[in-house]
Structure formats: C-alpha cells, structure tokens
Design goal:
- The structure is a single chain.
- It is built from 9 helices and 4 strands.
- The N and C termini lie far apart (about 40 Å).
- It is mainly alpha-helical.
- It has helices spanning about 5-15, 25-40, 45-55, 70-80, 80-90, 95-100, 120-140, 145-160, 165-179, and strands at about 20, 25, 110, 115-120.
- The strands form 2 sheets. Strands 1-2 form a two-stranded antiparallel ribbon.
- Helices cover about 60% and strands about 5% of the residues.
Length: about 180
C-alpha cells in the first residue's frame, strides 16, 4: 500500500540504504532520524515520508543516489505521488542557485538534473524549507565539526527562510545552531 513508512523502509533497505555510510552511521539511520524529527514537528504524513526518502535521488550535498530520477514511478508507488514530488524537489535542488531567493514567493528554484528554473508554490516551498532544516539539523547535532563549519551559514539560511518554517522547526534551528 502506498504511503506506508514500513514499505518505504523496506524499499530503502532493498536499495542499499542500510549499507551506505553516512554521518551518524548509515544512510538509512539518517533518513529515519529526519523522518522522526519531522514527526516531532507535527509534519503531515506526506512530508514525513519525503523526509524518510529525501536522499533517494541524491542531493546537491550528497550525490550518492539510491535511485536515478528516471525511476521516479517506483518511489511514487511506495510513498505516493505527493511525497515523491517532494523527494524530487529536494533532490533536484541546485542549492547555490536556489538558496539565496528561497524565502521569496517568486524566487526561482533551479533543478540540478535539468538545469531548468521554476517557481514552486507556497506549500512546496514550506515543505522544502522544513525538510532542509530537519536534514541539516540531524547532521549538525551529530557532528561538531559539521556544526562548526556549516552552522553559521545554516543559521543564516534558516533565519532568512524563517517565515517558511514551522515554530518547532525554527526553535530546533535556534537550539542546535545558535546554541
């Protein structure tokens, strides 16, 4: 049945996420921590599933994809179309081109796979910001060197996109990054 966290974890295991090294253990462990963080923040099921699978197509910061983007239908069959679209949005983000205008309603979002720019609506933009915060905060909590190197820039990013973040996500950003 689509939209099942259990099915998503099984799918991730089949793709090898449990055997891929990632800060804090394995990629699967990281993905599960991100999903749990989103749950603590009160995220809806589709966003939580997107958090669980956010690295399936790789990311601008973690290019080691579990699944190529031309196999999106496989992931959508497991987690549903809405969650898969968020996974694609997250994985496709060209951060250098997108982050500066992320908080702006008309800010362009550049797809690193296609090179094309588009303007996501308010909902996907909020989801993207929330997922970005959950992902980066997991890394910052576990790795003092990561937090020292990237924490100030991440706090700057999350401060700029604060209107897109839920109150619990913003509170976590302040706690982890501003200490």
């Amino acid at each position: 049945m689509p939209d099942s966290p259990t099915a998503a974890v099984a799918f991730l295991r089949d793709l090898g996420a449990a055997g891929r090294a990632h800060p804090g253990g394995t990629l699967l462990a990281h993905l599960q921590r991100v999903e749990r963080e989103l749950a603590r923040w009160g995220a809806r099921p589709a966003l939580r599933l997107a958090g669980l699978c956010h690295a399936c197509y790789g990311t601008d910061g973690f290019p080691d994809a579990l699944l190529p983007p031309d196999r999106r239908a496989e992931l959508a069959a497991v987690i549903g179309a809405e969650a898969e679209a968020l996974v694609y949005l997250y994985g496709s983000c060209d951060r250098k081109a997108t982050y500066p205008a992320l908080a702006e309603a008309g800010g362009a979002f550049r797809d690193r796979f296609t090179g094309r720019a588009h303007v996501p609506g308010a909902g996907p933009r909020r989801d993207f910001a929330e997922l970005t915060a959950a992902n980066e905060l997991d890394l910052a909590r576990l790795d003092p060197a990561f937090r020292s190197r990237w924490g100030p820039a991440l706090l700057g990013l999350f401060t700029r996109v604060r209107p897109l973040l839920s109150p619990p996500a913003w509170a976590a950003c302040e706690t982890v990054l501003a200490g």
